[in-house]
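## tool: complex_structure
## caller: assistant
## args:
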Amino acid sequence: MLVRAGAPPQAIAERRAQIGWDRPLTEQYARFMWSTARLNLGESWITGRRVTQMLSEAAWPTLELALGAMLVAILVGAGLGTLAASFRGTWLDSGAMIAALLGVSTPVAWSGLLALLIFSVALGWLPPMGSGDILHLILPATVLGLASAGAIARLTRAGLLDVLTEPYITVARSKGLPGRLVLARHVWPMALPPVLTVIALQFGFLLGGAAVTEAVFARQGLGRLVVEAVLSQDLPVIQGIILLSASVYSLVNLAADALHWLLDPRVRE
Amino acid sequence: MLRERRRFLYPIPTRHPLPSQWPTGKPERKPLSRNVTALTAMTFLIFVSALALLAPVVAPAHPMQVNTAAQLTSPSRTHLLGTDLLGRDVLSRLLYGGRLTLGVGLLAAAVAALPGLMLGLIAGFSNSWIDSLITRTMDVLLAIPYLLLALTIVALMGQRLEGVAFGIGLAGIPGTVRVVRAAVVSVRQRPFVLAARSVGCTGTRILWRHILPNVAGTALVIATLQVGWAILNASALTFLGVGAPPGVPEWGAMLNEGRLYLREAPWVAVASGSMLTLTVLAVNLVGDGLRDAIDPRLRV
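## result:
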């Protein structure tokens, strides 16, 4: 589909006319919007397949991976953050925060490799490569999740500490509520919104992390599609991926804002 | 009566185990000189940078020197960290590679920080339509996955380390703008800005002399954290095959090479992987230390 570099000008012009690049930009944009509105994202320049079909095939494994990773990230991140905040200033606090930082600081390629070596090669507990059932998902999701757990842990700690210094927490404590009840009833609901925001923002990171994770664990998915599309300059596919990921990102952030509105009565006024 | 009622509402306090001493004050500044973790991390970084800068003096061999007689030899007295597939000394490659890896990190952070600081200052200080223009543009850019931005820029600039640094740096601008703008908005409401305005300072003077010094610390914290972020992403791009050209002793590239013969010679991947992790960890710890010293309420 692509014209070779150094091809005769006529061939290049022909190809440009075929894609519609000889039309004015406004017309090109209108055409693009019109076909996008009808869920037609064109065909790949390399494989000639429909972009919507390529995207829907690649989206499911990545969605699986992203949701699994988010679950791990939220559990580990919120856990470490809560631990650090309720034991502020002790070795538990610094230990939890350094563990969170270690997760952020380790390249996914390296942690994925270590996880493969330990759990698949040495111990033989989990399948090393490919995708399919839940067993294939555990390692990649954990590796990717731990990488974004750090940000959640740090935000959780900061958010909890903010709330913990509020006077009404002192009131709750002084009337004799046990610590875990104060945390669950009075602290967490108030600290949740910023954490939700950072979780939503992490979705932007996930696609990047997914590209590496998918390469390490030989999975199919959007991440690999991105890399292949950019390297082969497959413009329709790149456009499709940007459209898809930007929509997902906006929707997730919208959902986070909506949850914030539901959770915090102060925002509603 | 009232007393009885109270008892009914709030049961008599019993001794519950406390999670710990819960904090009672807002986060306070913690000077770097008292922050042992950050100081340790800083020492480590200085040590690594010094070794990387002095690589031609301290390295036992040239990083590209191929020795087919010593392929994949395990660590020994002649090769402290062993050799790789082409018999190149891993320690020497690590030392020379430190220049590239740290250089990419610093360059990318600079590329992200300077335009990010400028745009953030302008957005936070200017009237509403310029502010919304910049903020909305950055929001749009944030919605595009940074990896895609970085990949595209690297693909356009060619497979060179400078391209990697630029791509990652440019992809980091929107995040920087966001944080700097928030800092500017909170500073411009403080009384000294009003005071400066009331004695007749122009907007430009207020921006440069009164607001910039007050957000510079925040920008420094962000820039530091971005060094670590950039090093990580450079290694990710290398891993995906668009980063450092093959053969270059950049740490991410070494890790990638070492992966191929991990079973036979784990030292190549282990040495480069651990150096990457330790360095990024140290950079992040220093960034955290700076944050605690300069702007403890900053969320990053």
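## assistant note: The mean pLDDT of chain A is 83. The two ends of chain A are 56 Å apart (CA to CA). Handing back to user.
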